[in-house]
Each structure stands twice: as C-alpha cells, then as structure tokens.
Amino acid sequence: MMDTEQLGQHISQQFNADLENIREDVLTMGGLVEEQITLALDALIDFDQDKADIVISNDEKVNKHELKIDDVCTKILAKRQPAAGDLRLIVTVIKTITDLERIGDEAEKIARMAKDICANRSAEFDGKLHYGALKHLGDHVRNMLHGALDAFARMDVDAAVEVAKLDDQADDEYNAISRQLITYMMEEPRRISEVLDYMWSARALERIGDHANNICEYVVYLVQGHDVRHMSWDEMQRLAKESR
Predict the structure, then answer these.
(1) Strand boundaries in the chain, DSSP class E
(2) CA distance 228 to 42
(3) What pLDDT digit, counting tens, does each position of 173-194 carry?
(4) Distance CA 44, CA 118 (A)
(5) What is the DSSP string of 86-127?
C-alpha cells in the first residue's frame, strides 16, 4: 500500500506531467495556426482558391484545440488548486490559446477575402498593387508569432521583448499599405469594393501581429509574475533586468 509520502510524490509527478502536456498542446495549436497563416497568405498572393478552402475548413480544428485545452485548464484549477508559478502557467495558457484562436480567425478572414478577390480581380488593379508589400507584412507577423511561441516554449523573457518590439514595424507596414490603397480608391472609385478586400486582409495581418505581441506579454507575466500590458517595452526590459 502506498504511504503518504509516496502518494504525495505520485500526485506531484502527475501534476507536473499534466502541466507539461498543456504546454505541448499550446505549441501544437500554435503550429497549426502558423500553418493557417502561411496558407492564407499564399491564397491571397497567389490567387489560390484551393488553399483558401483549406484554411476555412481547418479553422474548426483550431477551435477544437482551444476548447480542449481550456477544458483541461478548468479541470486543473478545480482539482489541483495551483498556486504561484503553476497558477501563472494556467492563466498564461488560457490567455494564449484565446489569442491563438483569434489569430486563426484572422487567417480565415484572409482566406475568405482571397476567394472573393479571385472571383472579382481585375488586370487593371493587379498592375497597381504592390503585392510584395502585402507579402512582406504577412511574413513579418508570421515570424512574430513563431518567435512568440518559441519564447513561450523556452520561457525566455528577453526573446519575448525582442519579438514584441517588432509590432511597431508591423504597424508601420500596415499604415503604408493602407495609404497606398486609399490613394488608389480616390483615383479609381469603381474599384473600391475590390480594394477593400485587400484593405481588410492587410488589417487582419496587422491584428495577427497584435495578438503575437499579447503572447509575448503573457510570457513575461509567466516568468516574472508582473502584468506588463500597460508598460512600455523599455520599462519592461528594465523590470526584467531588475528581476534577475
């Protein structure tokens, strides 16, 4: 018969295993979301309706991942009543999967815009739009997400801060694309509907960068226990150095 000490060790080991499984599940969901962004961006730039359909179909998989992980976290909170770092991990996971699900929604929006563009595109507008700028923004925010997930996996505050700083560049690129599209709409009012599809796609990409930024903030909270959502990144870096 297992004595009290052995039982405690068994429970502790099982709890640690449960927490590690949750971390791995988050990274699996993150990998799927990264793939969604890649496919959506390809569908938009290459006018590939098949890839757009895959993204739209796979969005349900992203949602199921969120529901599954959320359910596990709820059960752990109820049964284990975690404290300190373990509690911060559960809170971080719940917040992170919410942002990942929303990134998945943004990827689905882009895929639906891509299908609409494929159905209504014009050679006249194709010659005006700099697709390279849109692709660069897409690659940039996808790399931000990858970096944020890597920082989460390694619990690396410095890496999280560096990734989050890239959000300013995403904002600048989005603003530049928006100015270009607004100018074109003023010159060619007949094309407003077509241009808006690209405008909303660029906006969705910019929002993906915002969600990646959020994940970086959660990493800092997980490791240091400080809520940095309303701090500048310079303040957060100073706090990180003081906590070492």
Answers:
(1) none
(2) 34
(3) 999 999 988 988 888 888 788 7
(4) 9
(5) HHHHHHHHHHHHHHHHHHHHHHHHHHHHHHHHHHH--HHHHT
Please, are residues 202 and 174 in contact by the beta-carbon 8 Å criterion? yes
Q: What is the pLDDT of residues 111-165, one digit of tens each?
A: 999 998 888 776 656 555 667 889 999 999 999 999 999 999 999 999 999 999 9
Report which DSSP code applies to 48. Answer: -
Q: What are the backbone angles phi and psi of residue 60, rounded to the nearest 5°?
A: -65, -35
Residue 240 has pLDDT above 70, yes or no: no
> Mutual orientation of helices 157-165 and 233-242 as an angle, nearest 10°?
170
**CA 242, CA 127: separation in Å to the nearest integer?**
53
Q: What phi, psi does 188 have (nearest 5°)?
A: -130, 75
CA angle 214, 29, 66 (to 5 degrees): 80
**SS3 (DSSP) at 74:** helix
Place of tokens 């159905």: 119
What are the domain boundaries of the chain? 4-242
State the Cα–Cα distance between residues 157 and 241, nearest whole angstrom.
10
Q: Domain 4-242 classified CATH 1.10.3720.10?
A: no
Six-digit token string for 217:
């903030």
Of residues 22, 17, 14, the one with CA closest to residue 222? 22
